[in-house]
């Protein structure tokens, strides 16, 4: 099928002067449509010629440099009032005369659709070839409740019944990205035949640059990264990795985010799905390699603890950039960046970023304010994360009931995590001043009412510090005990690994802090010296490789 692709591109533009030759994300705007057109030349069944119709010498030079034919557009066809029909007709006649042939198909491709993908146009051409249409044009479906004006100047409804947008009938808006039509339909006054079909494209590909806001939108779309999180969330390791990845995913708005998790990460997969992100189940590293080859992420984020050299050498073959969290394994040296916010120091390799300034605190803690210090410890919080693999919650439940006998005015508040398996055993007991809350959506609103907390040694200690809540810390395991932030220097009493600490020590420490307001006040001061507000910004810059020479390790 003899096919001519015509790209109309004037030099003048009032809203964005010289827009077709302006640089967008590293190349002139016109080049995007030229590259799309050239990618269609190898399509089976199509014999493709490409021409750009322009009145501009500079633009013509850019086009010729790319090996594409330039048609000098007559001045009378280059005014603001001229529609595209006579321009395309002129280009077709010129090319048929030059090439000595008659085209079967004419495709108009706008120079102002840089986000349109070549694969989309190929599918549209295949769609056209497999049907008996005269014309196929690109459009996006935008059903809306809209109004018009009748001949009397009165506002009138363009709908019969007010419905939600997803229930409204289709409303196709032409995008200008491409218009495929039979040669016989092209004249000075028309390009659309009698039998017309719509080829629906995504909203991202439908942007037609007409204003500066369109330009900014296109730049953001073109800079978008495909980011894959590989994480783990199960009772044995807890939910901290999943929660961290979700916090970052929310911050990566505008990028394409997908999760991957092992089959046994059942509670993690449930939480990711509940958060409306796509998640791919993986069986093992070999299966993950297959997924990487298919998904081709720009950035891979590993939040799976220590990595091996073999694993990292494999993933770096498929992802352009690899960022690891909480990784002190032999594979860490192969990552582009390793972010260990829970550790204060390490081997200090060139790619490692340590310390609390890289902790990504959730937005809710930036919005809440610490309450005023209270001399009396009236409210004590017990919180051990999403899964609490050592069941420290169960131990503290019994301990707090005992404490109530000697401290009847103190209220103990238990926040049970999303994946805590024994929630049926931990219930509110008002006689003991024990109150239980399950899967709380906004933890900060509870924390900022507390005078003291008992917690594990993961991400929760940073959240408590941001709220100025002095805390007793019991680590879930030996690895968590290496997170040195939760020490007296930052306002915490650390009792070590919870399973190695006896009840008497826990009870005596709680009673001591309840009865010593000056100690709690000093602990609170140390906590509030920390500023977590910029942590996620530093981490996002590292993920996107948007750092500068002044960012220190």
Dominant shape: elongated
The poorly predicted ranges are none
Q: For this structure, what is the CATH homologous superfamily of the largest domain?
A: Spore Coat Polysaccharide Biosynthesis Protein SpsA, Chain A
Q: What spatial order of strands do you see in the largest sheet?
A: 5-4-1-6-10-7-11
Q: How big a fraction of the residues is strand?
A: 15-25%
Number of helices: 16
CATH architecture of the largest domain: Alpha-Beta Complex
Number of domains: 3
In the CATH hierarchy, the third-tier topology of the largest domain is known as: Spore Coat Polysaccharide Biosynthesis Protein SpsA, Chain A
Q: What is the averaged pLDDT score?
A: 93
Largest sheet: 7 strands, mixed
Strand elements, count: 24
Radius of gyration: 31 Å
Key descriptive features of the protein:
alpha/beta; Spore Coat Polysaccharide Biosynthesis Protein SpsA, Chain A; Rossmann fold; seven-stranded mixed sheet
Explain what the structure shows.
With 553 residues, this protein is of the alpha/beta class. 30% of the residues lie in helices and 22% in strands. The strands form five sheets. A seven-stranded mixed beta sheet has the order 5-4-1-6-10-7-11, sandwiched between helices. Helix 7 (266-274) links the parallel strand 13 and strand 14. The chain is elongated. It starts with a strand and ends in a 9-residue tail after the last helix. 41% of the residues are buried.
């Amino acid at each position: 099928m003899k096919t001519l692709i015509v790209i109309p591109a004037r030099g003048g533009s009032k809203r964005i002067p010289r827009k077709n030759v302006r640089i967008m994300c590293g190349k002139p705007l016109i080049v995007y449509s030229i590259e799309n057109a050239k990618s269609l030349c190898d399509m089976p069944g199509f014999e493709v010629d490409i021409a750009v119709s322009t009145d501009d010498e500079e633009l013509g030079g850019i086009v010729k440099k790319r090996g594409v034919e330039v048609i000098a557009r007559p001045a009378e066809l280059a005014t603001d009032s001229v529609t595209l029909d006579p321009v395309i007709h002129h280009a077709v006649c010129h090319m048929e005369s030059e090439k000595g042939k008659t085209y079967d198909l004419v495709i108009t491709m706008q120079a102002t659709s840089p986000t349109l993908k070549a694969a989309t146009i190929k599918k549209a051409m295949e769609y056209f070839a497999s049907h008996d249409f005269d014309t196929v044009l690109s459009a996006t479906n935008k059903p809306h409740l809209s109004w018009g004006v009748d001949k009397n100047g009165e506002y009138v409804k363009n709908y019969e019944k007010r419905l939600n947008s997803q229930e409204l009938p289709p409303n196709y808006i032409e995008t200008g990205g491409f218009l495929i039509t039979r040669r016989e339909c092209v004249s000075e006054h028309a390009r659309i035949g009698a039998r017309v079909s719509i080829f629906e494209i995504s909203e991202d590909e439908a942007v037609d640059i007409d204003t500066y806001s369109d330009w900014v939108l296109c730049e953001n779309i073109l800079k978008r990264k495909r980011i894959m999180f590989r994480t783990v969330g199960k009772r044995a390791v807890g939910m901290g990795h999943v929660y961290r990845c979700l916090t970052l995913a929310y911050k990566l708005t505008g990028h394409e985010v997908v999760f991957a998790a092992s089959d046994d990460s059942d509670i993690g997969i449930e939480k990711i799905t509940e958060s409306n992100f796509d998640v791919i189940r993986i069986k093992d590293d070999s299966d993950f390699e297959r997924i990487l080859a298919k998904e081709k992420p720009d950035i891979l984020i590993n939040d799976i603890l220590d990595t091996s050299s073999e694993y990292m050498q494999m993933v770096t073959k498929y992802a352009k950039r690899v960022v690891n969290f909480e990784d002190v394994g032999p594979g860490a040296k192969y990552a582009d960046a390793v972010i260990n916010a829970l550790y204060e120091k390490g081997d200090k390799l060139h790619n490692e970023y340590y310390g609390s300034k890289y902790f990504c605190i959730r937005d809710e803690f930036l919005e809440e304010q610490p309450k005023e210090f209270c001399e009396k410890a009236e409210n004590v919080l017990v919180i051990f994360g999403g899964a609490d693999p050592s069941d420290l919650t169960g131990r503290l439940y019994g301990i707090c009931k005992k404490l109530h006998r000697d401290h009847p005015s103190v209220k103990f508040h238990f926040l049970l995590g999303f994946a805590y398996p024994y929630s049926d055993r931990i219930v509110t007991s008002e006689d003991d001043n024990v109150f239980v809350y399950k899967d709380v959506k906004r933890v900060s609103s509870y924390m900022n009412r507390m005078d003291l907390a008992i917690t594990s040694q993961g991400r929760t200690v940073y959240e408590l510090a941001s709220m100025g809540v002095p805390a007793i810390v019991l680590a879930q395991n030996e690895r968590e005990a290496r997170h040195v932030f939760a020490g007296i220097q930052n306002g915490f009493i650390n009792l070590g690994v919870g399973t190695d600490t006896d009840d008497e020590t826990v009870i005596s420490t709680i009673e001591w802090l309840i009865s010593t307001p000056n100690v709690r006040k000093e602990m609170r001061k140390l906590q509030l010296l920390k500023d977590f507000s910029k942590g996620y910004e530093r981490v996002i810059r590292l993920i996107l490789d948007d750092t500068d020479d002044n960012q220190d390790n």
